Amino acid sequence: MNSRRNFIRIAGLATTIGLSGFETVFAGSNDKKMKPSGKGLKLRFLPHDLLLKHTFTIANSSRKTTPDMLTCLEFDGIFGYGEASMPPYLGESVDSATKFLSALDLSQFKDPFQMDDILAYVDSVMPGNCAAKASVDIALHDLVGKIMGQPWYKIWGFDPDDTPNTSFTIGIDTPEVVRQKVAEAAPYNILKVKLGMATDKEMVETIRSVTDKPLCVDVNQGWTDKNKALEMIHWLKEKGVVFVEQPMPKTAIDDMAWLTENSPLPTIGDESVQRLPDVIKAKGVYNGINIKLMKCTGMREAHQMLTLAKSLGMKVMIGCMTETSCAISAAAQLSPKCDWADLDGNLLISNDPYSGVQVVNGKMTLIDKPGIGISIIEAVF
Amino acid sequence: MNSRRNFIRIAGLATTIGLSGFETVFAGSNDKKMKPSGKGLKLRFLPHDLLLKHTFTIANSSRKTTPDMLTCLEFDGIFGYGEASMPPYLGESVDSATKFLSALDLSQFKDPFQMDDILAYVDSVMPGNCAAKASVDIALHDLVGKIMGQPWYKIWGFDPDDTPNTSFTIGIDTPEVVRQKVAEAAPYNILKVKLGMATDKEMVETIRSVTDKPLCVDVNQGWTDKNKALEMIHWLKEKGVVFVEQPMPKTAIDDMAWLTENSPLPTIGDESVQRLPDVIKAKGVYNGINIKLMKCTGMREAHQMLTLAKSLGMKVMIGCMTETSCAISAAAQLSPKCDWADLDGNLLISNDPYSGVQVVNGKMTLIDKPGIGISIIEAVF
């Protein structure tokens, strides 16, 4: 397996890069007495390209892999795991994440519980780099949850029985491939369809020819005419679609507010809603928001966005990129309070080094296991 | 000590009342095999009138005691403590709290971590009763924090070094008593003055004759003319006041928005802001909000209000009623993320059965102790 060999080689290289600057923290046991407060958080990271089972096509691009960075945060012999998934259209890369993570000095933090300070520091080091920031946030949550001996859905007081159905995404493809994907999606109770091309109606009709399961629709900013968009939404409603995600360009705010006001289906902002300050801006423009850890720098801000959106009476969807079970299990911790989940990213890849949250009868099923609740299938660090 | 004897007598009575309906839960060990899921949360409660060191005068009333109800929530041999403080003007009483708490069936909840479900149930049983609801919420937080082995400020990821100075309240009184109170307030770096009567300027001048410490002002809706209010705020600014709380009646929304727009000092809504939905309504009307556990049903909703207010760019003050160290220590868990604290309620009473958060050099000082971090000084349950 050539990909496996490459994986190990790249991993070794990155570990070397990643540890530069941190080795002095654990220079030797003799130092302990001289530096009683020297024990801080220790970060490791390594790239791990995700191999997609199917070529993935959305409105503007298609690809076979997703660049990804795995992280590990150590404190007092306890390890927390995180991840940055970086689909190219978001502007991050293994290079940018390596640069960002190498610039962090987490050894200055002697108490992992000070998540507010730690993550404010991480956010302050450079602008952007949201996925790279999320990779630290997720690892920190995993670590702190393990110290408390509880999974985050319990720490947050959520009922694991409240998790929603999760949708399975069907990309834009030939009718034959689409039918095959729908068959693969048998365990799911709701399907997500990527639209925004000339073939939208054909795509929906193809799916409808093989299943009558509820659909949700993600247009990825693909529609530019609000009247045509409204007409399309009326048609989609007849076809059993339950909501429409990011139908228009994120810059088309007035048109989008008009569409939401007139739409017979709820509208959800995705590309329009990255971080916490975007939630209040989305009020009145969309009926709900799609929270993704890779957009919003991780679980802490995601939890705040969820709290804010719910208090504003908005719907919340928890989404993902193509990710390993690490980030998917992290996002799933929030899912009991979300209206919809779209956490199928780990099921689209063939080289997941972790296992975690499972889909049982179409529903996210949380595990009563500390932190983000993952197990290591293939040792990475 | 007659008051102590009365306390015990009332306590015994209330415990009997409080346990009716719950005794069947622990009917006997023989039942255990027949009811494997029968172990639920067990609530006890008893009234404990708080004795005030000084007669307390605000704009509309004065009193020497505050009715209070202490609660204890047990699960699996672990005890969590809570409290409802019920100053008469808020409309709750020992009778209403007894009725409310007796109506709860918490034995149906087998997992204290399901705080969302438990507290949604508590909130749904009757409208109002916010302090009584807070007494359950606080006990549940204490219990769950103890199960996790961590104080809530750590669970929430706050930095205990970030706690603000806490203000010490000086009630409306004669110049002689005011001077005496200011002397008592020596350990504090900021004083809170209750205004809203004809003697406002005299009151501030009296305080200024003995100290130049920063002041904050609580008018308790006492000013009705917006122009006079603005004039007064300008005068107060010259006197070293840092913010003005609830200057006008809570119904005077337009006048208040005008005052906030023109005020040289930040304005804070207190009576105007009870629960989570009030936060968004306060945006544009006040610069900030005063969160009190007894108004908002407890720590869970208070944490959500804090998150919401901060994401809306508003200032947050954490306040209290006259309370024991129980509710004060619970509120203090939130204080590192607040701009101002006004948590002196336990210092105003002479029969505090608990000890918890301390004021050191004028600052709230959190204790690294699980739950809300209190110790029992006088066994109550």
Can you give me a brief rundown of this structure?
2 copies of one chain form a homodimer. Helices cover 37% and strands 20% of the residues of chain A.
What distinguishing features does this structure have?
homodimer; 381 residues; alpha/beta; Enolase-like, domain 1; TIM Barrel; 2 domains; three-stranded antiparallel β-sheet; disordered N terminus
Description:
- The structure is a homodimer of 381-residue chains.
- With 381 residues, chain A is of the alpha/beta class.
- The first copy, chain A, has 14 helices and 17 strands.
- Chain A has helices spanning 2-19, 31-34, 94-103, 115-125, 130-148, 152-155, 175-184, 200-208, 226-238, 253-262, 276-282, 293-296, 299-311, 325-332; strands spanning 42-47, 50-57, 62-66, 68-75, 78-85, 167-170, 190-194, 215-218, 241-245, 267-269, 288-292, 315-319, 340-341, 354-355, 358-360, 363-365, 375-376.
- In chain A, the strands form five sheets. An eight-stranded parallel sheet of chain A has the order 6-7-8-9-10-11-12-13.
- In chain A, helix 3 (94-103) packs across helix 5, helix 4 (115-125) packs antiparallel against helix 5 and helix 9 packs parallel to helix 10.
- The interface between A and B is medium-sized, with 28 and 28 residues.
Task: Indicate the percent of residues in helices of chain A.
Answer: 25-40%
Strand content of chain A: 15-25%
Structural class based on helices, strands and sheet pairing of chain A: alpha/beta
For this structure, the CATH topology of the largest domain in chain A is TIM Barrel
Order of strands in the sheet with most strands of chain A: 6-7-8-9-10-11-12-13
Q: How many separate domains of chain A? A: 2
Average pLDDT of chain A works out at 89
Number of separate helices of chain A: 14
Biggest pleated-sheet summary of chain A: 8 strands, parallel
Can you tell me the overall shape of chain A?
globular
**Rg of chain A, Cα atoms, Å:** 21 Å
Strand count of chain A? 17
Runs of chain A in which pLDDT lies below 50 for 5 or more consecutive residues are 1-37
CATH class of the largest domain in chain A: Alpha Beta
Largest protein-protein interface = A-B, 28 and 28 residues
- Ends distance of chain A: 20 Å
Architecture per CATH nomenclature, i.e. the level-2 architecture of the largest domain in chain A: Alpha-Beta Barrel
Oligomeric nature of the chains: homodimer
At the fourth level of CATH, the homologous superfamily of the largest domain in chain A is Enolase-like C-terminal domain
